[in-house]
Each structure stands twice: as C-alpha cells, then as structure tokens.
Amino acid sequence: MELHHSDTCMTPSLRRIRDLEDKMFLNCGKFLTLLVAAMLLSGSAASAQAPKIRVGIMLPYTGTFAQLGTAITNGFRLAIAERGGKLGGRELEFFTVDDEAEPSKAPENTNKLVQRDKVDVLVGTVHSGVQMGMVKIARETNTLLIIPNAGLDAATGALCAPNIFRTSFSNWQPSYPMGKVLADRGIRNVVSLAWKYGAGEEAVAGFTEGFIKAGGKSVRGLWIPFPNAEFQALLTEIASTKPDAVFVFFAGAGAAKFVKDYAAAGLRKTIPLYGSGFLTDGILDAIQDSGQGLETTLHYADGLNTKRDKEFRTAYVKAHTSEPDVYAVQGFDAGLLLAAGLEAVKGDISKRKELIAAMEKAKIDSPRGAWTLSKAHNPIQDIYLRKVVGRENRFVSIAHKALADPARGCKM
Ligand code: PHB
Known about the structure:
This protein is of the alpha/beta class. Helices cover 43% and strands 19% of the residues.
C-alpha cells in the first residue's frame, strides 16, 4: 500500500522525514543523472579514444654502437615528451628491440616489430647493414619507416620509397665536403681507412668524389672488418706510406679506440688525420686529450649558438644528465618529423597519403639548423667543419651550405 500524505496534515516530525525523503530523492535523482551522464560520456570516450600509436624502435643497445642507440632514443623521447607524450592527440606505445648492430639478425629483429608487435611506425637504425634489412621489410610490408642514423645511400637512393624517411644523412653527405676542404689545403695524396661495410665504403666514396673533383690526386684505401678495432698493423702501414693526410670513417667505441691509437703511435705530428664527424662525436670524454685539434665535417657541431640549439641542449641535459651529440639530434628530429605527420592527420595514422604529404613538406626546426627533405626523403642540410677544442666539436665554418644527397637511382 502506498501512503500519500499532504504537507498540511503532517506532524512536524513527519514533515522532517518527508523533507529528508525529498532531499534523498532529489540527490538520488541527481546522482542517477550524473551516473548516466558519466556512463554515456565514458562510453563515448571509450569509442572515441583511439588506440595508442604503436612505435617500434630498433636500435643497437649493445656493442660498439650502443651509446649511439641510447642517444637516439633519448633524443626521440625528448621530442615526444615536449608534446606531452602525445602526437596529433594520440598517445604512443613503444616496442623496443636491440639490433646489436648485427646485419644477419636484421630480418628477424625487424619482423619482431612488424609481424609480432604490429607497429604502426618503425624508427631505426644506426648500422647501414642492419638498415638494409629494415628497408627491405619496410618496402615489402609498406610499414612507415623513419631512419634516425644509418647512412645507407640506397635507403634514399635506389631503394627510396614513399614510406621511407631519413632524419640523419646519407653516407655520401658528410664526407663529400671534406674532399674539397683537403684539396683546398693543397693535400694531394690521401690514405683512407674505414670499416669494410656499406657505411665505410660509401663514406670513402663520397670523400673521394669531392677530393678528386676539387683537385686531389689519389686516395688509397685501407680496410678493416666491422667492428674490429685492432689498428696496429694499419697504423704501421700508414706510417710507411707517408700520405699527405689520412681520411677515416669510424664511429662510437671503435672511433674512440682509433683516435687514441693514432695519437699513441705518434702519427698526429707527422700525418694529419681527418674524417667525417662521427670520428669524434659523442666520444670526447672517452678520448680525453688525444683528439685535440682534430677537424671533421658533419651536420651538427658544438657552439652553433642558435636559440633553437641552446633550448634543445638545456632540455636534453635536464632530461638525461648528459650532453647531446649528433645522434641525440637525429633522434629528436625523428620525433619532430613524426609529429609533423601525425599532427597534420590529427593522429589518424590510417590517412597515409596526407600523413606522407605532411612529412614531405615539413620544415624541421632542428637544433642543427632548420632543414627540409629532398624528393628522396633525405635532409637537405648544412655540413659544418668542426674542430675538437677541449670537450667540444666546435663549429669552425660551413663546409657546404644546404647539401642534398644526389639520390642516385631513386625513382620517386
Ligand atoms: C652506418 O652504418 O651507416 C653508420 C654507423 C655509425 C655512424 C654513422 C653511420 O656514426
């Protein structure tokens, strides 16, 4: 039975109970309304909240290039963190593989990310031989790939593709201008020394092209297998050959060992040593004073003294308690390029055409100086001449302004 009572015939205590009931009903109603609204909202949010973008990071975290992989990762993550962890409104989820700079494991490692983890985008790697494996799989599966270091010329040359981008350099690019620097100094006969794999061969080829074109006479090639760092026999050979200068390609821990060995052999006083800037980038603490005065060419330098670079360096040191190097910059720029693409499509990575178009026309506000991409998706960038002074690869001059890789064999 339902009891209906009018307010007028109620005792004060009954009225209080009624008031209480009314309030409860009201509150209950409000509560229910809120609950329903919340459910509706969360329901629609759940359906609107797109899944995270799956980013596969494949870099060396062990071996001679371990430090390079770490610096790239730090730079990449900094760019994402500066955007609140989201690009185009979408959160990112990271899947990471240590590729050990081991080309024979490249297909298996790339497939862990592409087939197993089903990543939306691949970021990697450092070693040109490993890059070859990644590029092949990216082409076969049409996976978006951003290369944050490896210079493999073919990646933005004969194997160029709409889904393949690079934020670093081609192996030709930083070495080619050093040829003219040396020829202009009257150097005519050079011995080159490099690891015998894609990056070493292409760096020496780029240097040789620039050197001969600018008046150099001969480049005699000496080689050592990657990642071998036993240089004594080669140093003895250089000492007996007595070239005007030596040009080398080494990087990471192997470069640190080479610079120390070259100085210890007493060769710095008799035969000047030059290289692409990988020879001295990221290793100045390790080589201490043995690198003083070394001149190299690269797309980054200490002491650029721009507002952009200073901001980046401050943020990087704060986040990672170490100074950034060229590898950190390339990783950072990989984040900026991905951001440019995803922001243009508001996080909808399935809009592949618009995403690629936005990446292609992005102007990357890089710590190295702003750059744009060539048609083959490789940075058009200034190459700096630098000199080791104290613990810096100090900017000396621009060796080549806005240098674009020739992109030989790229049909795009
Ligand atoms: C490469 O293998 O392409 C490579 C590796 C390390 C560098 C530069 C290029 O510092």
